[in-house]
């Protein structure tokens, strides 16, 4: 079972299907940390600015994935995204990529270095739980959309394959003027620092040598 924060989903409308997605992601293995409604808050020019990412998924061997969720029937026409009703919606791929960039920038500012970007992939994806793979294949996606970085309603049964597919995408990064492909290779201290200081500074979920044993004990105690 994945480690979830919070351990129950935030309040959301049933139509968003985020609670369903939360419970599906909860079934990932304990190698995954899933953060629901992750917020980045900054003060710029004495103005409060808040950015929310629907789901951030972290795996110490794979990196970080920012998922933007858009429920209901959707379609894209002439580069403009619409709900099934015809109402326009914000470009989900632009939102997902913006979230990815903001999380990357937040990490860079926290550590006061760009080096973390060399060995931690940060990717973005979009989840359309209201359409299936067949409909996705018929959608005319705009140029900023990567089909391989999309989950659909078919993934509500098991999203692991699609999540691993997104994590397998190569990510080039420019650090101090030098471009290279990112390979996630975080040290133990870097993993602990990311969890404790960036992803969840108010919640103690640091991995330890006894994490697996503690998890098994918790599962055992829940059964007796």
Order of helices and strands: EHEEEEEHEHEHEEHH
The counted number of beta strands is: 10
The oligomeric status of these chains comes to: single chain
Fraction of residues in H or I helices: 25-40%
User: Strand count, sense and closure of the main sheet?
Assistant: 6 strands, mixed
Give a quick set of tags describing it.
224 residues, alpha/beta, two-stranded antiparallel sheet, 6 helices, 10 strands
Summarize this, please?
The chain is of the alpha/beta class and 224 residues long. The protein has six helices and ten strands, in the order βαβββββαβαβαββαα.
Q: What is the topology?
A:
Elements: E1 3-5, H1 18-25, E2 32-44, E3 47-59, E4 63-69, E5 74-77, E6 80-83, H2 92-111, E7 122-128, H3 133-138, E8 150-152, H4 160-167, E9 172-175, E10 178-181, H5 188-199, H6 211-223
Can you walk through the features of this model?
- It contains 6 helices and 10 strands, in the order βαβββββαβαβαββαα.
- The chain has helices at 18-25, 92-111, 133-138, 160-167, 188-199, 211-223, and strands at residues 3-5, 32-44, 47-59, 63-69, 74-77, 80-83, 122-128, 150-152, 172-175, 178-181.
- Strands 1-2-3-4-7-8 form a 6-stranded mixed β-sheet.
